[in-house]
Amino acid sequence: MTTTVHAGLVATVTGGVGASPSRPDGRLKVTGEFAFSSDLWADDMLWGATLRSPHPRARITGLDLAPALRIPGVYAVLTHEDVPGRRLYGLEHVDQPVLAADEVRYQGEPIVVVAADHPETARRAVQAIGITYEVLDPVTDPEAALDDARAPRVHADRPNLLRHVPIRRGDPDATAAVVVTGEYEVGMQDQAFLGPESGLAVPAEDGGVDLYIATQWLHVDQQQVAACLGLPADKVRLTLAGVGGAFGAREDLSMQVHACLLALHTGRPVKMVYGREESFFGHVHRHPARLRYEHGADEHGRLVYVKARILLDGGAYASSSGAVVANAATLGIGPYDVPNVVMDAYGLYTNNPPCGAMRGFGAVQACFAYESQMDKLAAALGLDPVEVRVRNALHTGDRMPTGQVVEGPAPVAELLRLVQAKPPAGQADFPPGGTANTTRGEGVVRGVGYGIGIKNVCFSEGFDDYATARVRLELIAGRPAVLVHTAAAEVGQGLVTVQAQIVRTELGVDQVTIAPADTAVGSAGSSSASRQTYMTGGAVRAACQAIRAHLLSRLEGRAPSHRPTYRKGTLPSLEAAGAAVTGSGAAGATAQDGLRLVDGRVVDEDGTVVADVAELLAEGAIEETVQWRHRPTHPLDPETGQGDAHVQYAFAAHRATVDVDTELGLVKVVEIVTAQDVGKAVNPAAVTGQIQGGTAQGLGLALMEEIQVVDGKVRNPSFTDYLLPTIMDMPPMTVDVLELADPHSPYGLRGVGEPPTISSTPAVVAAIRAATGAALTRVPVRPEHIVGV
Amino acid sequence: MRVTCTVNGTTRTADDVWEGESLLYVLRERLGLPGSKNACEQGECGSCTVYLDGTAVCACLVAAGQAAGRDVRTVEGLAPEGELDPVQRAFLRAGAVQCGFCTPGLIVSVHDLLARVPHPSDPEIREALAGNLCRCTGYEKIMDAVRLAAGSAEAGGR
Q1: ipTM confidence
Q2: Is A532 an interface residue toward B (CB < 8 Å)?
Q3: Residue in A34, A118, A728 closest to B18 by CB
Q4: Cα distance between residue B136 and residue B47, in whole Å
Q5: Chain A residue numbers touching B75 (CB-CB < 8 A)
């Protein structure tokens, strides 16, 4: 029998919107019982393994599968010829082969997949495959890739320029009294989720396949897998297995099609689990970037213009590069009000590792450059770095370079002032170099730096972005209970908790079960772009509101009539504590009839119980399925980049304090202070967790995290050589959360996950600059950049 | 080969073990104990931390044969069935669990730390947990969880 994913997370805790109840999956996770995608097991299952290209660019000249097939225990050895449907896949452009046919375009590109009865047998079979290549010169310089005369095409049928997003606002020839310029570089960061790519494909009797998988978006996987298998979507059923972190790295397919191919070919369940080294080749990374900026300001430090050119290396396949380029361009001058903007952002194909989504998605690279520029401007004017930012801060009603008016709260200046006002950091727990005794304080200097960033929330540029929720209110053992069914991916962020909180707030029912996420219900969209609490949260709330209306309609003829009094914007909380939830538009609508659902009862404005929910449910369960959309967005004008492309903007600010050993170039981050506006903290503990975790990933990019690529080859595909922040590297963090409601979003909430990753990087680097005076135009900062050797 | 060892207090035997298999593989794939995790399988991340004869080790770095005849305790065996160890409770209460992939290894490491140093200072906590990577939390709530577990009245009783 198959070891399945959890049978549904039953939360018996209380706690609605604004509370911090325990995660319903928490107990399973602390006891080791939670089934991650790599933990699945089925009787008779086989193990898959993948032959990958050692070359970044080569022609496949010979392939001999016989030696692999001769190994006892090997059940299948498949190539591109065994892909029954579409042989390519991709999120935005269908350009990536399921298995390479004649040419490989990056190191690690899959060519052959094998199924065997033991993972070691499968690995040996991969090694036994005879394969020859004609090695070609890889295109590795994105600057050269831009120029047809200097580089061959990575894809014969299209230019290397994947997308160019220009933005023109105001006067392109504006001049200014003070001008600062800079060139910056951002290295290739890895998401480095801990749970490797993995899943279990089980062939079904109807000729289809059931795939248990860790992903960020079940339906976009389903669509791609079905197309490649040549099966209708209803024969490719996906269920979310436990996801060991995502951060963007699970937006693209990895082993999904491969495992299904092997399972359908062998008629047996097939499990694939990447090792860590393979994982570095198994998913896209954050785009490395080269950025050139020119900022012009008047003598008071008020920005007159920004001119910028951003080059993003997309690697061998498109993935989500197009959207990353648009983000870099549209958010590329930061949360500042600038009348004149000339921005050009480019995404390129090269033979470097494919790049795509990672937390922050294009906004990260730009933020390092524009915030470095703001510090440069402050220095040129003799102004305090916070002061120069505040003088240019974006406010509600200001226009972005795209012409879009920022409608919601934009507390840019406030966030900066908040982090600035915190008391200075105390002594560090450790000197730079940790416990290695590399210094006793000699040569150690301290610096403080600031950063602020901006991020869009939800999908942009006219994308039809929606989420589906099916909610059922029924009697179980005589008590009202709710079942929530969505396809939304819980990736660690706490969406399962939040869904149950929303149900408790809307329906006043404590017992809420979150069904396993699968494709039996409509799409929830992706767990990315900081969008799931907004979108799936919005869908769950809308479904609850529909149920509520249906439930209350059963009151007719049974209870005294009610004269509803509508109190705009105020919805009495359904929490036991009774604290008021300041709601926005739709939340107020819930209260329109003056009735509340509290603890399984319908209560009127005076607190009189009108009916028991259980009594109303005696007529039968109520189930509603709702597809919910955010406000529409619009494409960018291809010439001017003008357009209302984004749904919502989110902001975070950081202050970093560092101690630097100037002799060895070692850095200890002593403290990080951060402030973020989240609109409404639906789950304050989870919000803090996102901010702290996001900040850590930004610190990693500032100081240590880089996939080192030389001639198209990854030199450090392991946790020995790709350095992640440890608990020794992370400082204590102070987090301030603002809750300035967005009038358009559910409960006024704002996406939380990405902003903290964006501004922590420039804050840490600014602190090192402040301590050392080093220019530091590249992240991650290396010791030699500080010491100057 | 056949490997017999004590796992969470029970004698367990795995047959047909290939010599190259790690203790982690045997626990996860042969003994039905996938709680110990497989994030790097080269001793860098600590997600597979288990006790081997009372010492916290990375199960991925122990050859299955080396565990023969020895006593293994995994995250699944820290508390009796249906109960939670104080460290597990503290991780839940502190909100130190997000994706949860690092959690089992961290819980065993913290369990080990508190058994040796019941009231660790912050630097002691950081040094003891430097071999456990977490990608989600930024470690702040993990620090909270350790302080909570160390401060709980029941923490001394392990």
Answers
A1: 0.97
A2: no
A3: A118
A4: 13
A5: 30-32
CA distance A486 to A503: 13
Q: Is B137 in contact with A692 (Cβ distance < 8 A)?
A: yes
Task: Give yes or no for A314 touching B (CB within 8 A).
Answer: no
Residues of chain B with pLDDT under 70: 153-158
Q: Could you tell me if A404 and A643 are in contact, meaning their C-beta atoms sit under 8 angstroms apart? A: yes
A578 in contact with B, Cβ within 8 Å: no
Give the span between the Cα atoms of B135 and A82, in whole angstroms.
37
For residue range A320-373, what is the model confidence (pLDDT) as tens digits? 999 999 999 999 999 999 999 999 999 999 999 999 999 999 999 999 999 999
What's the rounded Cα separation, in Å, for the pair A185 and A204?
49
Minimal CA–CA distance to A281: which of A107, A122, A405?
A: A107
Q: B154 touching A, CB under 8 A? A: no
User: Out of A29, A243, A725, whose CB is closest to B103?
Assistant: A29
CB-CB neighbors (< 8 A) of B29 in chain A: 41
Pairing of strands B10-14, B3-7: antiparallel
**Distance (Å, whole) CA A287 – CA A60:** 27
**pLDDT band at A556; cut points 50, 70, 90:** confident
Please, which pLDDT band fits residue A581 given cuts at 50, 70 and 90?
very low
Burial class (CB in 10 A: 0-12, 13-18, 19+), A599: middle
CA angle A589, A593, A599 (to 5 degrees): 90
Q: B50 to chain A: which residues are within 8 Å by CB?
A: none
User: Which of these, A487, A508, A512, A509, lies nearest to A498 by C-alpha position?
Assistant: A512
Distances (CA, A) of A158 to A162, A323, A348, A723: 9, 18, 11, 36
Q: Is A560 exposed, middle or buried (0-12, 13-18, 19+ CB in 10 A)?
A: exposed
Q: Tell me which residue has tokens 């590109």.
A: A109
Chain B residues with CB inside 8 Å of A359's CB? none
CB pairs under 8 A between A and B: 181
Give dist(CA A741, CA A373) in Å, integer. Answer: 31
Is the Cα dihedral A154, A156, A159, A163 positive or negative? negative
Helix (H) or strand (E) segment spanning residue A265: helix A256-266
CB contact under 8 A, B42 and A30: no
With CA atoms as reference, report the closest residue to A474 among A551, A574, A556.
Answer: A551
Chain B residues within an 8 Å CB radius of A191: 135
A-facing residues of B in 38-97 (CB < 8 A) are: 38-42, 44-45, 47, 74-76, 79, 84, 88-89, 91-93, 95, 97
Q: How far is CA A60 from CA A64, A94, A138, A318, A668, in A?
A: 11, 21, 15, 22, 48
Do B143 and A727 make contact, defined as CB atoms within 8 angstroms? yes
What are residue A664's phi and psi, to 5 degrees? -105, -10
Please name the residues in contact with A710: beta carbons below 8 A apart, sequence gap of 6 or more: none
For A535-544, the pLDDT digits (tens) are 999 999 999 9
Closest in B42, B76, B135 to A192, CB measured = B135
Interchain pair A430, B123: CB under 8 A: yes
A695 touches chain B (CB under 8 A): yes
In terms of C-beta density within 10 A (0-12 exposed, 13-18 middle, 19 or more buried), how is residue A131 classed?
A: middle
Among B104, B127, B132, beta carbon nearest to A435: B127
Q: Where are the alpha helices (DSSP H) in A20-86?
A: 26-31, 66-69
